[in-house]
Amino acid sequence: MTYTLAPMGTGRPFGVLEIPDSRFPLNLDDKLPAIRELYRRAKTTGWNPASDISWDQLDLSKYTEEELFAARQYWSRLAWGEYGAISESPALLLRYTKERRESDLSMFWTVRTQEEVRHADACRRMADALGGYMAEPVTKDLEESVATHGVRGMSFDADTPLEALFGSLICCAEVIAFDVFRARIKTTTDPVAKQILQLIFRDEVRHCEFGWKYMEYRVPKMTSDDLAIVRNKVIWMMEEVELKGYHSSWLASSPNVTEMESDRVVYEAGLGATVEEVEKPILVKSVQEMRERMRSWGIEIPLFEHPKMGTF
Amino acid sequence: MSEVTELGALDPESNFELGIEARFPLDLTSTKPTMWEAYEASLVQSWDPEDESLWSDFDFDRYTAGERAAGALVWSHRAWVEHSAIAESEAVLVRACLEVGVSADFKYCVSMRAVERARSTDLCHIFATRLDGYHSSPRTEELADLLNDELVRRVLHAKSDIGAYIGAHLVAQSTIDLRTWECARTNSDAGLGRIVDHVIRDKARMLKVAWLYMEDAVSNNSNESRNLISSNINHVLFEEEARGRQLSAFLSSGSDATGLAEANRIAAAGLGGVGDEDQHEIFEVAVDELTTKFASLGIEIGTRRDLER
User: Fold this and answer.
1) Taking the domains of chain B in order of start, what are their residue ranges?
2) How many angstroms from the chain centroid is the CA of residue B126?
């Protein structure tokens, strides 16, 4: 398969969008079996936030006012995070199309975007059920903690190869988020919160697999220079995004204490959040596993350092 | 209001500009109940062209080799058109998220449009493949150029007006699209018809959503803004659609014009083809329908002759 790539190093921020449309031949015959299988699974496991969650099992009388307020904040924040994938991630599909990548990528991605819609919808409903969805952070500075890592911009940037995006965004950042998410399901005791998390988790499994499967297909065709770009982007993602608190605010150099305290209230109430002592060993394990898997690509991910994590 | 029609976005001399998102306040609660109903309906009215039970009523052996070859070309052409709307839908979604004040209802529906177009692309490809083999390209540059129409750039450019884009594409183009599929349904045998019904339901639902968006969008618009929308719709209708982007009967000449005309004529007997005469009628009826409905919103649709003047 020959891709149509925009020239690198032009300094033009939307280089990918400047690739002229050249859709033919439109190859729909060649499938990527592993990606097609994920697409098939996604098509058959859809769920409906309105009817597939046992909303009537949510018993608010079990919780204090403080817990409910903190949980409203928390689930609103989850909804904002899911919305980021609605607002930004479709840019990746535009890139698949512009670069004339395998059509199964786009097929899968349509469902992936739609799943993020379901996730945002479910989280918003949960916040509503807990007392009311909040349309913005309580304090302005919290907006930064839910800012994105710029998927949209990177998707259109010709200087960031798609494989580097997959390696850093999906195989690194999204997998860490996924592992923390799994822990969240274990520590959540509220039946409705748990059910929502489980349904979202089921989708996220495919989202992570998608990245790894495509990279397994691409890596044998990549040069050592290509792989070096992927490696650098993964390191950047770890050092500049994850270890600065993108997913876990306690990692930030000046963590938002209010947010951390609020998360602890939600965690202790069993309504969904996790906290530093739960996430720390998960992060270490997640990075170790990522390092192992990427080694099989021929990429050596270095050790990282962080004041709260040490060297890992 | 944005400054130019979407065509400004195609000007290679102008720097491409992407909007800047102001994410908060982020209203994710439904404010457009009819759109929300459409979103929820799309969640439960899901179907899968890869589900073999869908095809159990369709008898491939009923058709001759010539009919199957004709059908394969018709459905390959349909796959090309459907496929272009996948990226278009995701681009509309990105753009809607960059705009201030677009409801979550609309964004959620647009995310479904991408899923639905992926599904219909798959359907067209599967059907073409099973009939006689999928064709991966038009034969002429005329049709390829019409389909290489830079929709992603057009919708994403910060200076192109999103209302004008939605009016021209998600309403006007989609009206022609829906009417074409409805005619294809009429010309399908019973087994194929039941499959095509799924696509028509998806398209009708999304067209309704796009009209609702337009009704809201133009309610407070200035005359200048309405003129911009009008100009965009006229261009897409009379400079692109009337040249054969979706309806091959409008292609000027060449092997796509003759090949698709013949294939549609043959495939009209059960395999969902749409003959030249029907295609012309679809266009005329769609323009009449659009003219009437847009007029009720204060937007004038011209005629081909007006544009040529």
Assistant:
1) 34-41+64-308
2) 20
In chain B, residues with a C-beta closer than 8 Å to the C-beta of A137 are 24
Q: Is the pLDDT of residue B13 over 90?
A: no
**A-interface mutation test, from B30, B111, B151, most A Cβ less than 10 A away:** B111
pLDDT of residue A169: 95
CA distance A274 to A281: 12
Question: Chains A and B: how many Cβ contacts under 8 Å?
Answer: 154
Report yes or no: B93 and B111 within 8 Å, Cβ to Cβ: yes
Q: Which two tokens stand for residue A3?
A: 């891709």
Residue of A nearest to B26 (CA): A135
Return the CATH superfamily for domain B34-41+64-308.
Ferritin, core subunit, four-helix bundle (1.20.1260.10)
**Quick one: which of B56, B67, B119, B65 has its CA closest to B271?**
B67
| Residue among B290, B102, B260, B91 nearest B178 (CA) | B290
Name the superfamily (CATH) of residues A62-311.
Ferritin, core subunit, four-helix bundle (1.20.1260.10)
Closest CA to A151 of A228, A206, A211: A211
Residues lower than pLDDT 50 in chain A: none
A28 touches chain B (CB under 8 A): yes
Question: How far is the C-alpha of B212 from the C-alpha of B206, rounded, in Å?
Answer: 10
Q: Which residues of B touch A144 (CB under 8 A)?
A: none
Contact A17 B156 (CB under 8 A): yes
Q: Within a 13 Å sphere around the CA of B30, how many CA atoms are in the beta-carbon half?
A: 17
Nearest to B124 by CA among A29, A94, A32: A29
Instruction: Give the helix ranges, DSSP H, for chain B.
Output: 33-44, 65-98, 104-131, 141-147, 151-156, 162-165, 174-186, 190-218, 223-235, 254-267, 276-295, 304-308
Chain A residues 52-81 with a CB less than 8 Å from chain B: 79-80
Q: Is A281 on the interface with B (CB under 8 A)?
A: no
Helix/strand/coil (H, E, C) string of A188-223? CCCHHHHHHHHHHHHHHHHHHHHHHHHHHHHHHHCC
pLDDT band at B10 (very low <50, low <70, confident <90, very high): confident
Q: What is the DSSP letter of B271?
A: B
| Least Cα separation, residue B289 to chain A (angstroms) | 31
Supply the pTM of this predicted model.
0.97
Nearest Cα to A42, choosing from B46, B211, B123? B46
Partner residue facing B147 (CB), from A23, A51, A120: A23
